[in-house]
Amino acid sequence: MAASGRGLCKAVAASPFPAWRRAHTEARGGLKPEYDAVVIGAGHNGLVAAAYLQRLGVNTAIFERRHVIGGAAVTEEIIPGFKFSRASYLLSLLRPQIYTDLELKKHGLRLHLRNPYSFTPMLEEGAGSKVPRCLLLGTDMAENKKQIAQFSQKDAQAFPKYEEFMHRLALAIDPLLDAAPVDIAAFQHGSLLQRMRSLSTLKPLLKAGRILGAQLPRYYEVLTAPITKVLDQWFESEPLKATLATDAVIGAMTSPHTPGSGYVLLHHVMGGLEGMQGAWGYVQGGMGALSDAIASSATTHGASIFTEKTVAKVQVNSEGCVQGVVLEDGTEVRSKMVLSNTSPQITFLKLTPQEWLPEEFLERISQLDTRSPVTKINVAVDRLPSFLAAPNAPRGQPLPHHQCSIHLNCEDTLLLHQAFEDAMDGLPSHRPVIELCIPSSLDPTLAPPGCHVVSLFTQYTPYTLAGGKAWDEQERDAYADRVFDCIEVYAPGFKDSVVGRDILTPPDLERIFGLPGGNIFHCAMSLDQLYFARPVPLHSGYRCPLQGLYLCGSGAHPGGGVMGAAGRNAAHVAFRDLKSM
């Protein structure tokens, strides 16, 4: 059994020789000494930035440290025959215009929409011989109301109103995602022309205000209050509240009782797929197939992608302007601009010469909150899990609930808070919060016949254990065994079905994918690190204190998730600056 994130694995793609690599090999050949733009890191945001720049006529090269593109949006065959979305595993937030502008379907992107999308089984040990209840939610509101009515008739009536309320807030936030934040520095210190131009950055804020109207105070509360307070105003049943609250804490070292956790919930409900608001789905071939499609769009128009090429330093000329990068092997590559898809910490504290950056700026970057609660476990199984609350079909074929995000240890918001408190004491959660997904239930190409791949997104696990102890193989295995024991209670026989597993604790996520602290968002999505203040106040957006250097990853506005907005927005800002040179 593969027992940790340190084992050998190989990267795979939707095809053995993806279109982006064919286009790059046939058209461009080797590395050139100079490009118009260099992108550091071939994560999805870096690929999006390069694709837009290249379409605008900017000759662009991307340098990726790993042997495979995609960053956290990657498909890897960790166990022979089983293809895992090793880090990110679901798609919803990718901006609609990116699908269209980059022609991703033309470049091979195929999606599997999930309906139903959420399944929360109960244990209900005192139910005797009765099948425990479960909560199954999908796009059919009438069916949702029936499901919720098992726990509360009042909540069943309130749920459509809650969904409409959240939908309106998502609509208001939407225009803010596709534009740079308001340029406060230009308003304060810019020329008259710069101040006039920066007025346009107010438009998304004004549009958001018009959408929210007189309800603005209520929506402000959603963004600033603990999610428990918000949900308590709508609902009374714990299974529903806990299921909804999982989206407020997923990937975040926060409790449902933490002020501001409502925004993380919004971040996870404001997406959509193929015109369906809030829909989440699986990518055919795993998340790496999405990265391959973006890369194919970029290389078709002339971009160059180089894997296993680590950038060691951003080069700066004597006038304090970026002039390219130096690779780890000493190769110098000149460029007029550099866009960094790495985290703010790596970009500014490791790659950029410190003497060119303000001391206060560097201090703020070093103080960013990067705490992560996440341990991702990828599991190969020889059959589908059979839940007590929803037993398998006689022939073991996938049932509707198998395609869902399956929430375990989530019957009560108190369980979520207790799991968080364990991590605050330096301990992995005694009863971890588990989001279990089975993408092979809709995409059989991911596993051998009859077998499946299971994604376990679990929390809370601290980066450093109590007493300053680091994670080792024994600690990884003990935590994974605890997670498997929890699943076994809901789905007896799960442990016997396991063929192999890949355990990625926060330090593993940092080491393999470059996620600081293992944080899937590069830094916390708390209100003090969003919009005006992402990555830090007075340096929000994409431009950096160093002329010609731009941040285009999840550490820039609007933040993390497989959204692509940071890459797209940064490319447009950089292109405007290039035209004015």
Provide the descriptors you would attach to this structure in a database record.
581 residues; 22 strands; 19 helices; disordered N terminus; single chain; FAD/NAD(P)-binding domain; 5-stranded parallel beta sheet; alpha+beta; 7-stranded mixed beta sheet; 2 domains
> How confident overall, as mean pLDDT?
90
- Main sheet makeup: 7 strands, mixed
- Which outline best applies? globular
Structural class: alpha+beta
The span between the termini is: 57 Å
Number of domains: 2
Pfam family, one: Amino_oxidase
Domain Amine oxidase: 46-389
Main location: mitochondrion
Subunit structure: Interacts with COX5B; this interaction may contribute to localize PYROXD2 to the inner face of the inner mitochondrial membrane.
Structure write-up:
The chain is of the alpha+beta class and 581 residues long. It has 2 domains: 34-73 and 96-107 and 286-367 and 523-579, FAD/NAD(P)-binding domain (3-Layer(bba) Sandwich); 115-279 and 371-513, no CATH class. The chain contains 19 helices and 22 strands. The strands form 6 sheets. The protein has a 7-stranded mixed beta sheet with strand order 8-7-18-19-20-17-21, sandwiched between helices. Helix 1 (19-27) packs parallel to helix 13, helix 4 (141-149) packs across helix 5 (153-177) and helix 5 runs antiparallel to helix 8 (203-212).
